[in-house]
Amino acid sequence: MGSEDTVGKTGETEAVSTIVNLAEEAKDYREGVTPPSRTFRSICKSLFAGGVAGGVSRTAVAPLERLKILLQVQNPHNIKYNGTVQGLKYIWRTEGFRGLFKGNGTNCARIVPNSAVKFFSYEEASKGILWLYRQQTGTEDAQLTPLLRLGAGACAGIIAMSATYPMDMVRGRLTVQTNKSPTQYRGIFHALRTVFTEEGPRALYKGWLPSVIGVVPYVGLNFAVYESLKDWLIKTNPYGLVENSDLNVTTRLACGAAAGAVGQTVAYPLDVIRRRMQMVGWRHAASVVTGDGKSKTPLEYTGMVDAFRKTVRYEGFGALYKGLIPNSVKVVPSIAIAFVTYEVVKDILGVEMKIPD
Fold this sequence. Notes:
- By secondary structure, the chain is an all-alpha fold.
- The protein has eleven helices and two strands, in the order ααααααααββααα.
- The chain has one domain (42-349): Mitochondrial carrier fold (Alpha/alpha barrel), CATH 1.50.40.
- It is globular and about 60 Å long.
């Protein structure tokens, strides 16, 4: 009995100690004291916050996301979608409410881990880059510059994109298919298995190169613009926007919207090329024309440069920006919601809000 009592008391002591430690961590967080090391629990919370941010932001703009992809890959000789409003009405009329959110399940299955990895990778990359910068400059209180934030964002984007690219590949095909498509992908795993068996494992990474190239300015600029705008506003405090050394939700949403607008405008042509390369090999894709510019046979691309050349040659430079308007309408709230949701969830979970200095 003595040994059992000892074990029981030890367990109670450990439980009390754990509760005390958690209370102290929460107290330190509220008082602005950053813990000396990042615990496993803190890492999980950060990943969870990033996943929630991605799922919430992408679901909020799912209809616009689907319309953007349909505009990017539609056949110019069989125009169905002529703009944002008309396109959404057409989808509603022909496929109903569920048609507006077709592919969103696959999209969220991809974007949740993608967003989690992206935000977490940005924080870790920022810490590493800041440490190297301080070592090189010999300045202990040096801060991240906009260029360094761009580099950290680029690293985060490449890591997240590469880790989840096959999901993005099949999401594009699930989004493009309609009720009249001769072959139907029944879901995420069916699409992955079908592409893998019929087109080979390399098909799951079609369009990866323009995706990675595009993610460097896109994600890099998103983080760089957002963080730099926030820092500038906190330092200058125009119109009294700063309250208690922090920006309100509305101002942070505006920073996120500006970041999204800049990033997507620069990277959008690469997104169009990526999406078209993903459709290669799928005979039921409503793609662009070949050779003489009149045939309705889907184009075949030998690579990213060839895809750019044929798109501009047969459809003009403007084809690189097909779907830009609905994408712009989508990106502004989506990026803003993602950044603010991430920070709010981290705040609720008691994780440090900013990259530690």
